[in-house]
Amino acid sequence: DAGVTQSPTHLIKTRGQQVTLRCSPKSGHDTVSWYQQALGQGPQFIFQYYEEEERQRGNFPDRFSGHQFPNYSSELNVNALWLGDSALYLCASSHRRGLDEQYFGPGTRLTVT
Amino acid sequence: LAKTTQPISMDSYEGQEVNITCSHNNIATNDYITWYQQFPSQGPRFIIQGYKTKVTNEVASLFIPADRKSSTLSLPRVSLSDTAVYYCLVPSYSGAGSYQLTFGKGTKLSVIP
């Protein structure tokens, strides 16, 4: 079992650009949650996908959007990048809409210049 | 919204027992309390989850008093490899079934030889 995988590992973008990050959940998991973690801070909840729909959302603007595919994999899209979007983006998969144990991927390090 | 509060940092010598307490005054009746460990540049890793009284697994124990407004993670006989940031996680509800899964700032544990 490969666990949760994320791609790419690192990414450098320019202000105003758009970015797509990808996540494959652990086998058997149906729920994917995305988090943003700035340096020295705890992970901040962006949103959660279950049954291909966004079910829960944190305090993030509409520039942050996502998608879940029938195989439970997921994408996080960020439009009109700001310098402040530079962070580690973590994907976590779970059962029961994230209220059970979450398995985290290694993250994608996004740098906006 | 539920908010968690933990000590920012703790130091311990190798071989000692470490107790990290998290307060969560607004925890919902049916929610579990979950603890995670995070090493630098990695995603958080599940440690333990509990609802009430005491839960123990191979790496830690979790103590939850009757009022469930706090919880204590206990790490027996810590080693240098336990140096990490520890987070407690409690869902934060905002009404109509909506919730967020937001980590607090965490407790940075430093184990000293």
Keywords:
heterodimer; A: 113 residues; seven-stranded mixed sheet; four-stranded antiparallel sheet; globular; B: mainly beta; 11 strands
What do you see in this structure?
Chain A is an all-beta fold. In chain A, 0% of the residues lie in helices and 50% in strands. In chain A, strands 2, 4, 5, 6, 9, 10 and 11 form a 7-stranded mixed beta sheet that branches. In chain A, strands 1-3-8-7 form a 4-stranded antiparallel beta sheet, with no helix packed on it. In chain A, strand 4 and strand 5 (44-50) form a beta hairpin. The mean pLDDT of chain A is 94. By secondary structure, chain B is mainly beta. Chain B has strands spanning 9-13, 18-23, 33-38, 45-50, 53-56, 61-64, 70-75, 84-89, 92-95, 98-100, 107-112. Chain B has a 5-stranded mixed beta sheet with strand order 1-11-8-3-4, with no helix packed on it. In chain B, strands 2-7-6-5 form a 4-stranded antiparallel beta sheet, with no helix packed on it. In chain B, strands 9-10 form a two-stranded antiparallel sheet. The radius of gyration of chain B is 14 Å and the shape is globular. Chain B starts with 8 loop residues before the first strand and ends with a strand.
